[in-house]
């Protein structure tokens, strides 16, 4: 099944430094009921680097239990040690997820050959679908379009979450991608523009809020009504910079607590809760029904 539409990279709720599974179940049910096309927990927005191995598997298990086949699930699983990523595949494979979202190796900054071999090894080690994640401002190394397109030839590398930060590069990728290879916007503020150029959807942290409006933007563009999509985009896009004004997902968690979807806006160090200044700004500028 092609990866397309609006996917929410679900936050991981904490309370008293423990996983808050009651809130997590509420979140999963809420976004399915809102009409999202899929869920991608345990990514950056899910604060995965702060989770223990036990907590990671608890989230995978709870996700699949609550989703119960209603929408596809792609789990964040990446790292800068290829062998460790391959070993961890066993955790997600036994829970029958559709696939993994795997970030380009960070910190050790491999060249394009190393990036290619890293993902080729992962591809050869599983039958799960693999969505590449290119986010060079976090990883320190950009995945060139040539590398992405070369990897798209692998049997189970089905798409890329594109957060390259270079829209010219994104345009080039969209114009040259294979038909069955998905390019999903990972830059929330480019969701509308990417769809207009043939993008397949987005993995959009901002869509934790005003979810139905994000889905309407996608649906209108699929129905060749860019004008109607633009009118909705004008309404929702101003909130996006505010939700990234301090480190993600701290502003989103503040808003989710405010509207009662999670019990606490707690994050784990090295993240800290948002400032009082940003709280005031969010309260003044984001109106949620």
TrEMBL record:
**Where is this protein chiefly located?**
cytoplasm
BP GO annotations: diaminopimelate biosynthetic process; lysine biosynthetic process via diaminopimelate
What is the catalytic activity of this protein? L-aspartate 4-semialdehyde + pyruvate = (2S,4S)-4-hydroxy-2,3,4,5-tetrahydrodipicolinate + H2O + H(+)
* Subcellular location field: Cytoplasm
Listed PROSITE patterns? DHDPS_2
Subunit: Homotetramer; dimer of dimers.
Q: Which family does it belong to?
A: Belongs to the DapA family.
* Protein name, entry field: 4-hydroxy-tetrahydrodipicolinate synthase
């Amino acid at each position: 099944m092609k990866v397309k539409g609006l996917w929410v990279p679900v936050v991981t709720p904490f309370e008293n430094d423990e996983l808050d599974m009651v809130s997590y179940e509420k979140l999963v049910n809420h976004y399915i009921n809102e009409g999202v096309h899929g869920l991608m927990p345990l990514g950056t927005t899910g604060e995965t680097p702060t989770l223990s191995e036990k907590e990671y598997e608890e989230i995978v298990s709870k996700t699949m239990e609550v989703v119960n086949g209603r929408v596809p699930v792609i789990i964040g699983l990446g790292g800068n040690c290829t062998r460790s990523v391959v070993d961890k595949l066993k955790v997600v494979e036994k829970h029958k997820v559709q696939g993994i979202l795997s970030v380009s190796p960070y910190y050790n900054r491999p060249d394009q050959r190393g990036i290619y071999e890293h993902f080729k090894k992962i591809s050869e080690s599983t039958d799960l679908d693999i969505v590449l994640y290119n986010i060079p401002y976090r990883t320190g190394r950009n995945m060139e379009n040539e590398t992405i397109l070369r990897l798209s030839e692998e049997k189970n590398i089905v798409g890329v979450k594109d957060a390259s930060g270079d829209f010219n590069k994104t345009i080039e990728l969209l114009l040259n991608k294979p038909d069955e290879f998905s390019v999903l916007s990972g830059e929330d503020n480019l969701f509308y523009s990417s769809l207009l150029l043939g993008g397949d959807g987005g993995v959009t942290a901002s869509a934790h809020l005003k979810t139905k409006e994000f889905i309407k933007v996608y649906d209108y563009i699929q129905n060749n009504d860019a004008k109607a999509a633009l009118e909705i985009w004008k309404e929702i896009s101003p909130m996006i910079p505010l939700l990234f004004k301090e480190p993600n997902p701290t502003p989103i968690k503040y808003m989710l607590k405010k509207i009662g979807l999670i019990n606490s806006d707690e994050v784990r160090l090295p993240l800290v809760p948002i400032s009082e200044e940003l709280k005031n700004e969010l309260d003044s500028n984001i109106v949620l029904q």
